[in-house]
Design a protein that fits this description.
The complex is a heterodimer of chains A (51) and B (565). Chain A contains 1 helix and no strands. With 51 residues, chain A is an all-alpha fold. Chain B is mostly helical and 565 residues long. The N and C termini of chain B lie far apart (62 Å). The chains are: A mainly alpha (51), B mainly alpha (565). At the A-B interface, helix 1 of A face helix 2, helix 5, helix 6, helix 9 and helix 12 of B.
């Protein structure tokens, strides 16, 4: 690997997602998982009702 | 398709390409060319990641899948939110911290050059083939239904994408993808609205869903533990997790999208945008296909949706038999339509006995219709073995061309081409970057300037574009296009992911152990693919697990205890 290809500006870790109502990245991830569970529940109900 | 459609189609596609080229005309240094200057916000990253994954076949094949076999395909995406969380939490910060241009550069820093070359080589092999299919897939369908020259369609779409990808690099890809995705979303919502407006009066939306559901088109969820069933919740979560983790975490066509972020926050939010919206988006596209199925219960559908092939066959030696089947099909359709309306009427009267009888009669005509279609396909495929058994890829575009108003037809064709260009651009961008960063810079021993690297990147992007066009020109149509790409990915992705998981989580394992483990695991997966008949999603898990396990065994057994120079 040639040095010319290595970027010299290290990027700092982000700690605050700055998302209203979600104060940490952990809460963002939990929100996504809850959303997924909700999708599966809705699609299960959809399958049961219309099959 | 008329002049208005043509203006909308060409204006949209060429307009976006010209805008992307113009906006990025001053891209001169390597960081800007490969990482888009790291100024991209989360919205653009989110749309860019989504556009890279959503190729034209997503909009051609997916509605057809729901039309043909129901909505179970949505489960294929169940592992995606979990994979994106892992990528955002683990992969992304390390890539950013090490300031790599490609995911495989990270392997070189963590292990050694041979492991880096192996990872890059597997990516180039898999993605190089997929890029050809990405161009070919929409071209074969669009050229067939519109009567355009296949070769010319491939060449024109290939040249447009090459021009702006070579010219502006990652930044041009990200900018154009944002507008292409906007066109895609607008087009799909418009198609949905027009579809609902064209349904027969007196049939409510709920009744449409009951019609589709009673004929097995709305089964989105399957909790069964059957390994032979292609799409279940479990194969979706576990197999899909490994497929998505490998795709988003290690495939340069995606890694390059989110490495362009202004900060870790922007990149992460772009990924979370997809984690939240991808499943409902796929559900919506499948639902569109299920509603096209309902539409064709009230409007006479073609007996075989590839109408060009149908016309050819009906003028051949089987013409008489096929035309007789077509007449039977028309009569059966009228009978089925009447049975459906009768069933809906009995449902409204709340008479369970009459409803059950009406439903049984309706399903009987449905079964007879399936049997008739199968008989027709057998005749067609026997006469022309090159003809694909399934015509599901032609369902949605046939509906668009025959039933949508002019102008909207042009918009929907623009959706298909925008999707084709956006995913192809990301692939060529990644193939060019990986070739120059992981191969060219390694094998070319003397130092060269930043500008020379940009020139080399452009040259390799152009080369991969030409290879993809060449592959597309000589490819043959596979049974289902979207599955073909997923199967190809599943064979290679698992092993690549295994290498990366070892890199991230098993710090005591060194390059030589993981290198030989990866080769052994890849041979195992290819052998299993040709000998077993399990769902292809499981190969992601098997390849990954085998690579990790073999790495542990080889490391313990041979005791490679120091990092090679």
């Amino acid at each position: 690997m040639k040095e010319t290809l290595l970027d010299n500006n290290p990027v700092e870790e982000s700690t605050d997602p700055s998302v209203p109502g979600l104060s940490s990245w952990r809460s963002v991830y939990i929100f996504i998982i809850v959303l997924f569970v909700l999708y599966v529940a809705l699609m299960t109900a959809f399958t049961v009702v219309f099959s | 398709m008329n002049g208005v459609d043509f203006v909308v189609l060409v204006g949209t596609i060429v307009g976006i390409a010209i805008y992307g080229t113009w906006r990025t005309r001053d891209t001169k240094n390597l960081s800007a060319y490969l990482k888009g200057d790291r100024k991209t916000g989360w919205g653009t990253i989110g749309l860019s990641v989504m556009a890279t994954q959503a190729s034209a076949i997503t909009f051609l094949s997916t509605p057809g899948q729901a039309f043909d076999s129901g909505m179970a395909f949505v489960q294929n995406y169940f592992g995606l939110p979990f994979a994106l969380i892992i990528v955002a939490a683990v992969f992304l910060p390390l890539y950013r911290k090490m300031n790599v241009y490609t995911a495989y550069e990270f392997l070189g820093l963590r292990f050694d050059n041979k492991t880096r070359l192996l990872g890059a080589g597997l990516f180039l092999l898999q993605r190089g083939l997929a890029a050809g299919i990405t161009i070919y897939a929409p071209a074969i369908i669009v050229s067939t239904v519109l009567g355009w020259s296949l070769d010319l369609t491939i060449l024109l779409s290939g040249i447009i994408v090459i021009v702006y990808t070579v010219s502006g690099g990652t930044k041009a890809v990200n900018i154009t993808q944002k507008y292409q995705m906007a066109v895609i979303l607008a087009g799909m919502v418009t198609a949905f609205a027009v579809l609902l407006a064209r349904m027969p009066t007196g049939v409510s939306f709920t009744e449409m869903l009951h019609v589709a559901g009673s004929m097995g088109k709305l089964g989105a969820i399957d909790f069964s533990l059957d390994f032979d069933t292609r799409y279940t919740v479990w194969s979706g979560i576990f197999g899909g997790l490994f497929l998505s983790l490998s795709y988003f975490g290690t495939d340069q066509s995606q890694v390059q999208r989110y490495l362009a972020g202004d900060s870790v926050r922007e990149s992460r939010l772009g990924l979370m945008f997809n984690a939240a919206l991808k499943i409902p988006m796929q559900f919506f596209i499948l639902l569109l296909g299920a509603l096209v199925f309902v539409f064709y219960q009230f409007e006479q559908p073609p007996l075989y949706f590839n109408e060009t092939a149908w016309r050819t066959q009906t003028t051949g030696e089987n013409g008489e038999a096929l035309l007789a089947l077509e007449e039977q099909h028309a009569n059966l359709h009228q009978e089925k339509r009447a049975e459906i309306l009768n069933w809906l009427e009995t449902k409204r009267t709340n008479n369970p006995t009459a409803e059950a009888q009406a439903r049984a009669s309706m399903l009987d005509t449905h079964e007879r219709n399936i049997e008739l279609r199968n008989r027709t396909r057998d005749i067609l495929v026997t006469a022309d073995p090159n003809l694909p058994m399934e015509d599901s890829d032609y369902v949605f575009i046939t509906f668009v061309l025959n039933y949508l108003p002019h102008g909207i037809i042009g918009l929907l064709l623009a959706v298909i081409f925008a999707a084709a260009l956006s995913s192809t651009a990301a692939e060529l961008n990644a193939l060019g970057s990986t070739t120059v960063v992981d191969l060219y810079s390694y094998f070319r021993r003397e130092e060269i300037t930043d500008a020379q690297y940009v020139l080399a990147s452009k040259g390799f992007t152009l080369l991969w574009g030409m290879i993809a066009i060449g592959f597309a020109l000589f490819a043959n149509l596979v049974e289902n296009l979207i599955e073909a790409i997923n199967i190809l990915g599943s064979i290679f992705y698992g092993v690549v992911l295994g290498i990366f998981l070892v890199a991230f989580f098993l710090k005591r394992i060194h390059g030589t152990a993981v290198f030989f483990a990866a080769i052994t695991a890849q041979v195992l997966v290819i052998a299993m693919f040709f000998t077993l008949s399990i769902s292809y999603l499981w190969y992601n898990f098997i390849g990954c697990a085998a690579c990790v396990l073999f790495s542990l065994v080889i490391q313990s057994g041979f005791g490679f205890n120091k990092k090679p120079a």
